[in-house]
Amino acid sequence: MIRIDLTQGIGLKATQDAYFDILNTKLKKARGRQEFTSASTKERIRRAYIHFKQKRHGLMYVYEYLLNNFREVITDEPQKLVKHMQKITALYKKHKLTNDKRIRNEGTVARHILKTLGYESFSGGKKSYRFINLLNVPVCPYCNRQWITTVEADSGKVRATLDHFFSKEKYPYLSMSLFNLVPSCYSCNSSLKGRKEFSLVKNIHPYIEDFNGKLHFSIGFVKGASGTKKVVEFYKDEKSLAIELKADAKSSKSDLKKAKKNSSIFQLEKLYAHNKDYVVELVQKSVVYNATYINDLAKKYPKLFNSPGEVKRLVYGNYTLTSDLNKRPLAKLTRDICLELSLPI
Ligand SMILES: [Zn+2]
Fold this sequence. Notes:
Layout: H1 12-24, H2 41-54, H3 59-68, H4 70-75, H5 78-94, H6 109-117, H7 119-124, H8 126-135, E1 151-153, E2 156-158, E3 161-164, E4 181-184, H9 186-193, E5 215-221, H10 231-236, E6 241-247, H11 253-265, H12 268-272, H13 276-288, H14 291-300, H15 308-316, H16 331-340
Antiparallel strand pairs: 1-2, 3-4, 5-6
């Protein structure tokens, strides 16, 4: 897991403002889907509020809350989203909105809120592309194995999927919240996480933290692969090698529990077991290269590299600094194994 650090790039405040602007422009009707049209998200919330107020229906209180706290619900950071969640959950309870049967012809409470906020139009239209381009996350933060880059051409387009960290079925009012939308790969979002419920207590939220200081990749050996052979001989033998996620010594118990939970949901050890050849190459590189050799390369080709870091990237085939781990698949694996093999990063 790699953190999406919004303090980088254009900065946190500018990102929040830009996302708010994206949402505040008028929506067009998504093809084949019923949604309110030609009104901004806030205007549609206002209309829904008036509608349920006239009906004296408890849902008016939820829309009133969203209307009064619109910007906050849309742009607040995860810990604050939990506060909104608690307040709205209390409104649900007070006005008996869970499983409310009174919203005839309008579906369930959750469906109504999703529709009012315009999630489908957002997801199926240009706004989701604008949002994803704004965040500029090239690799899935959950697995760090898949590219999720955007392409928009007349002949076809593709973008990252958007995972709702907090379930959009259970918390539809957070369906459009910046910090509840995690650009991620299809495998992690739909195949592995699916409808499993995540929380800040039990799971790692990629906008807040990652595996650093909690779990690291390490070379292990599959059972039975022991004997008198030297360790490096095992390293060359993919079959006896295992890639493990081990606890960092400084990790707290609760952090470790969260990290392990994420690792298990996203099947990371099983997926990374398919990258043994990559680790074998790093082992080979650890024999061929050392700090002196890498420095010599930088000196020998002063015009070829902008920095000593670029020489390391050429040698390891990846980024290894913590701040760069979201730039290329397998970067965290590369960093951890390089550290284990005492290669300079
Ligand atoms: Zn992924």
